[in-house]
Specification:
single chain, alpha/beta, Glutaredoxin
Amino acid sequence: MRTWILLVALCLAVPLAHAQQSNSGNCKAGSLNLGAPTTADSTAPSKQASVTNPKPAATVPPSTDAEKYVQNVITKDGLHVVHFWAPWCVNSRNELDNGWADLVASNPNVTFTFVTVWNDGERGASTLDEYDLPDRVTEVTQPDLGPSNNEANRRQSFLSHPVTWIPSTWIFHNNGELAFAMNYGEMKMSTLQSLIDATRTDW
């Protein structure tokens, strides 16, 4: 009798232990329902956030001649580099010293537009001439709202995207889609080249 009771208890215990092990350590990702609603609305369909405008820079109304020019460039076929800089900025000059001319020369099928910002509306073309940039580099000037030594007067956006640091470099493709935005200051040319190559790659 004791043996029979022990066998029954053992038969009940083994499936229970197996079930606990299966639930804790042998789950498959396909069987998980992560983030499922636990309220009465559990049958309501989930909503995915929609991207209403994947190319804002290409469609926002330009507010300056510089924005209008750049928008016209980036909405054309090809790959386009837009670089924000200022002649007085040490980091901007360091980048120019460290190979912008070579980077442009190595990418003949890419457009390069240098946007001079936070410079009291004065152009930077004469400074760029000191660094032997190829002639196909275009310089445009973004005007300030007042004297740029007052940071409140500096325009902090360009074609709907933030410009909060210089130098900054953006790469566009697909007729106005932003692929990369390096808003962190001075960059190595090898890094920029890698990003250009990545943008050129067909996904």
